[in-house]
Amino acid sequence: MLLAAMGSPDIRQIDGIGGADTLTSKVAMVGPSDRDGVDVDYLFAQVSVDKAIVDTSPSCGNMLSGVGPFAIEMGIVPVGGEKTSVVIYDINTQSRIEAIVETPDGVVNYEGNERIDGVPGTAAEIRLNFMDIVGSKTGSLLPTGKPMEVIDGVKATLIDVAVPMMIVRAADLGKTGYESAAELDADKDFFARMEAMRMEAGRRMGLGDVTGKVVPKMAMLAAPREGGSVAARYFVPHKTHAAFAVTGGLCVSSCVLVPGTVAAGLASRPESDDCTVIIEHPTGVIDVAMTTRPDGNAVEIISGGVVRTARKLMEGTVFVPSATLVSTPAA
């Protein structure tokens, strides 16, 4: 049903409401939660554009920015004053996120001056506070127990904070780390090598055969050059993100803060336990507020937060061909 609604598999998604891009072929499914201290449950689905694949293994932080306003507008969560807190349980990662939504006069406010690099225009602030983010899929910060290892002759950090990731240094793959998304996407040999490494990373992280799956995600790092903490390019995973994913930002920020990772010597590492990691990406920066705690020679990741925006586009009914709803009897 989701494939039919989005118009997949078809690179144009012309027979559906998808935007013919990985970033605009996503679905959030939201409903009331019966979990203690949680308002709504959220299940994310990445709908492939050109393949008949719906992947619910990852989450999506940017889609999360719309969950709070949706829950309030649908009457699932009552307005709580000038700002309303919506506690979301992310089924994909089995974690909680608090969304703080502006609700003056008892309704969701979408108008504001908050600007997100890579997103046109401005809108009201939606603050997302991520909890329980360590070990989203693997159960541990460093699934292999090592902050850095070698895959196909390349140093890599395999880390799981909000999303499992393989993170490498751009220079080790013959890149500067400052390339545009279009420049990277045009290098098919680069992506073929990265995919082979990703497959091995998935195996080492205990994720099994990750063929056709979108986790682990990938990122490559370089030294900052615009005053940020680190420059990075994020892959989703078979295409370069035009900006940066929220969950990916949490994971890369953790990589910057954990000693001994591939970020060492590249990133400008904040010293405070409560700090902001600024990630430079192809269309600007993303600021990630991190809370950590010293743990001997290591660092414990407590939580992370970002400011996002959302705008209401439409409401109503999405139609799919009737044949999609008819089950085919087993042979």
TrEMBL record:
This is 4-oxalomesaconate tautomerase. NCBIfam families: OMA_tautomer (NF033377). Keywords: Isomerase. Belongs to the PrpF family. One of its GO terms (molecular function) is isomerase activity. InterPro entries: OMA_tautomer-like, PrpF-like. Signal peptide: none annotated. Coiled coil: none annotated. It comes from the Bacteria.
